[in-house]
């Protein structure tokens, strides 16, 4: 049973990593396109790279969402949810959410300060905040989980 739980936890961490990286690529490419459009810049030879990042990120995000549905059914079938979502999981989740909140506050302050120096649209600011709001807590949660695994070894 413990081997199955370890496998489920590794799968969860891989899915979270896929989701975070995919979201960062997808929305990061969108942000780059928004900035270039607003600034009137051309990507030139990098336009293909931006579009490939956008496509790969969107497909990765959709794939991660679908795989989470499969993962949830595996966890439910194994009746391991209470073991997977133990006290340490809840503790790490709270830390990650707090970290994400603080990252959003810091990013908002930076964007407000940047608005005094550079004129940019609300779309750019909101997309940047969205990227921070999704990737910061996911990344922090994954780092905390990795640290816990290293402590057990």
Structural account:
There is one protein chain. By secondary structure, the protein is an all-alpha fold. Helices cover 89% and strands 0% of the residues. It has helices spanning 2-39, 47-78, 81-84, 87-117, 122-152. The model has no long low-confidence stretch (mean pLDDT 90).
**How many angstroms does the end-to-end distance come to?**
19 Å
* Binned strand content: under 5%
Rg, alpha carbons: 18 Å
What's the domain count?
1
Output mean pLDDT. Answer: 90
Main pleated sheet: none
- Name the structural class: mainly alpha
Describe the structure in brief.
With 153 residues, this protein is mostly helical. The protein has five helices and no strands.
Give a quick set of tags describing it:
mainly alpha, 153 residues, 89% helix
How does the SSE layout of this entry go?
Blueprint: H1 2-39, H2 47-78, H3 81-84, H4 87-117, H5 122-152
């Amino acid at each position: 049973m413990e081997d199955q739980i370890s496998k489920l936890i590794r799968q969860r961490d891989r899915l979270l990593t896929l989701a975070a990286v995919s979201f960062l690529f997808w929305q990061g490419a969108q942000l780059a396109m928004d900035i270039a459009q607003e600034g009137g810049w051309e990507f030139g030879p990098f336009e293909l790279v931006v579009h490939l990042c956008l496509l790969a990120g969107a497909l990765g995000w959709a794939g991660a969402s679908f795989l989470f549905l499969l993962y949830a059914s595996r966890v439910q079938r194994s009746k391991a949810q209470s073991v997977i979502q133990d006290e340490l999981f809840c503790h790490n989740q709270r830390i990650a959410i707090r970290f994400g909140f603080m990252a959003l506050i810091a990013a908002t302050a930076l964007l407000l300060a940047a608005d005094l120096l550079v004129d940019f649209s609300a779309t750019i600011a909101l997309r940047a905040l969205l990227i921070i709001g999704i990737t910061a807590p996911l990344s922090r949660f994954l780092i905390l989980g990795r640290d816990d695994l290293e402590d057990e070894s």
